[in-house]
Amino acid sequence: MWDTFKTRWQQGHRTQAFPPAQPLPERFRGRPTIDAGRCAAGCTACRDACPTEAITLAPLTFDLGRCTFCPACAEACPSGAIAWTPDYRLATRTREGLLLRDAALPLATALDRKMRALFGRSLKLRQVSAGGCNGCELELQALNNVVFDLSRFGIQFVASPRHADGLVITGPVTANMRLALQKTYEAVPDPKLVIAVGACAISGGPFLNSPACHNGATSTVPVDLFIPGCPPHPLTILDGLLRLLGRLESGRERNTA
Amino acid sequence: MNLGGCSARNGVAVVTTAIPQLAPEAWRLWIVTTCQTARARLLALPTAATAEGGRCVYAILGLDTRNELRIAATTFPAGHAAYPALTPDLPEAQLFERVVYEQHGIFPEGHPWLKPVRTQRDYPFFAVEGDAVHEVAVGPVHAGIIEPGHFRFQCHGEQVLHLEIALGYQHRGASALLRVATPARRAVVAESLAGDTVIGHSWAYAQAIEGLAGVAVAHHAQQLRALALELERLANHVGDLGALAADIGYLPAAAYFGRLRGEFLNLLMELTGNRYGRSLVYPGGVCHAFTAALRARCGTKLAEAERDLKAIADLFFAESTVVTRLEQTGVVAKKVARQLGLVGPAARASNLLRDVRTDYPSGAYRFHYIPPVRLASGDVYARALLRVLEAQQALTFAAEQCRIVHRVEPGAPCESLAADRLVVSLIEGWRGEIVHVVRTDAYGAIDAYDVVDPSFHNWMGLAWACRGGQISDFPLCNKSFNLSYAGHDL
Ligand code: SF4
Hints:
Chain A is of the alpha/beta class. Chain A is built from 8 helices and 10 strands. The model of chain A is unreliable at 250-257 (pLDDT under 50). Helices cover 43% and strands 18% of the residues of chain B. At the A-B interface, α1, β6 and α5 of A face α3, α4, α7, α8 and α16 of B. The structure holds iron/sulfur cluster. The site of iron/sulfur cluster has 13 residues of chain A, from α3.
C-alpha cells in the first residue's frame, strides 16, 4: 500500500497543457514552408525525390495529404527553398486545403452552430483501421494516455459505432476492409462526422495507387476533417479535433485540467 | 556433416546460380531432414518468377547455433503444379505453404488445412458441434483502437475449445509494391510494413539493399541504428506491459507504463523528428547526426527511464492479484512453440533460445553481445516478465551506445545493385525475427521481394495459447503476444 502511494507520488503530474507550453523538438517536421522564389528555372529535384508524388511544379505545390513528412524533398533541393517548421497545426476541413503553395494552410474551421451544439462539449468517436500500419492507430491511442488526456476535452473513443457520433479512419482503405468500413459508417447514427487521420487515409500515402487499396477514406465515405502526417503527432490530431469543435477560437483552448 | 543447399549469411548476397535447384520431392526431403536432424528452422519460403513463366520457390533454412543460412530452390512450370506438402512433417510450414498456394496456385498435396490467408473467399469456419457449444465471432472491427481481424471462438460455457483467427483485412499489396516501386517509395513502404516496427523493418530493408549493392555501412551509423532499434523495443515492451495492466484492471501501472512508453517515443522523436523513428535508416547509413547535445540528453533520459521502469515494474509484479491473474494463463509449452515455429519474446518465454541479435548478429550486435533471456513457463506471466528483463537489457545497451557513438556521417547511397543475387536480411525486431528476402535479375533490378514479419509465425501461437482457457483470458493472451495485423497481411 505504502509502495503504491510512493510510486504515485514519484510519478507526479504528467498531463501536458494544450496548447503545449514548450515547442516540439527541433527535428520535428511539422508544416513545411516553401519559397518558390528561390527555385532555379527548370529544377525538378524535389518532385523527383518525393516518394509519394506529393509535389507538383509550376506552381510549386505540396500536397500535405500525400506527404509522409520524410525529409527527402528538402534534402534534395539545391537552393534551400523548402524548410520544416515545428508547427504541428495541420488539419483542414477540405482536401484542397491541404494543397500548400506559399500561402498559409487554411486550418480547420469549426462545425456549424447546430453541429457544435450537438458535439461541442461531448464527442464520441469510433475508430476504424482500414489498412493502417498501426502508426496512426498508436498515436490515436496515445491521446488516451495521461500526457494528452483526451477525455478532459469531452472527447472519447467508444467501442461501438452505434454509440458514436463519428468515425476516425486510418489506413488507405484496403479492398478487404472496404465493406466493413461502409457497414461501420452506416451503423453510426445521423448526423455523423468522419475524420481521416494520416497520409494513408487521406490519399493512400505510401500505398498510393496500390491495386489492393482505394487511396484513402474519400473513396468510400464523405470526410469532414483531414489530419495529415505519417503518423500525425498526437498534438496535431488534438488540434484538429478541437478546431473542428470550435474549441480553439472561443479562447477556451487553455484547458490544462 | 554436409547439410546441402547453398550456405549464406545474414545480409550477405549470394549468386542466384549458386543456389541448388532440386526436383520438388528432393527439395521437400531436404527441407524436412535438415529441419529434423540438424535443428534448422524454416525462415521464409519466397518465390520468384522464372523466365519461362513458371515459379521458383526458395526454402530459406536457418541454423541458429551456427550463424548460418542454407538455401535450396525448386521450380514449378506454369499451369498445374503440385508437390507433397511439408506441413504434415513440419507444422511450422503450414502458413508459408498456404501463402504460396494462394498466390501462385502451387498445390501442397496433403496439407491438412489449406484455408485462405489474405484473400476473402467464402470460407466455412471450423465449428464444434454439441449441445452446450456456442460460437463467439469478433471483428474485423474491434472494440478498441486496433487493427482489423476476425476471431471465431468455439466455446463450451466459458471455456474456449478452439479459436480460429482469420486475417487479411490489412492486405495492402506491400510485397508487390516493394518489388516494383522506386527506391524512394520502397523506403517509405518498408517503414510502413508495421508502423510499430519502423526501425526493425527499415533496417531489414536497408541491410538487404546494402547486401545487394555490396556496400559496407560505417560502424557508428550501425550503432545509431542499434540504439534506435532498442528504443523501439523499449517503447513497445513497456507499452505492452501497460496494456496488460489495463486489461487486468490495475490502472496505476497502466497509466505509468503508458507514460513511460511515450518517453521512449519522444526520444526517438528527438533523434529522428518522428516518434516512430521514420526516415532514420536508409540504405547506406542513417539520415541524422548524433550530436553531443543529443548524446547527453539521451543519457539523462535513459537513466531516468531506468529508475522509472524499475519502480513501476516492482509495483506491478509485487501485486499478488496481478501475478495470480498472469500465471498459468495462456500457456504455450516449449514443444508446441518449436512445432509452430514461434519467434521473438513469445518463443523465449516458452524456453526457446531464438534471437537474431545473438544467432545471426549483424551491425553493432556483432561487437556487442546481448545475452538472450528465456523463461520456462510459457504463460502470460513469462511473456510479461520477459519484457521487463529485455527492457532492462535494452536500457543498458542503449546507454552504452550513447556513450560510444560519436561522429555519424551519412554514408554513400546504394545506387547500383549486383545482378543475379539473392539476399536474406534478418533483424531482431521487438516482436522477433524480421526476414526480408530480395532477389535481383540479370540487370540488377529487384525482381522478387518477400517479407516475413514475426507476427506471421506467432498468430498461431496466440490461437494455441487461448485453447482450453477461459474466453475472458483472451485479452490477456492477446496483449501478451501483441501481434501485427498489417505485418501479417502485408
Ligand atoms: S516530405 Fe513529403 S513532400 Fe517532401 S519528399 Fe517527403 S513525402 Fe514528399
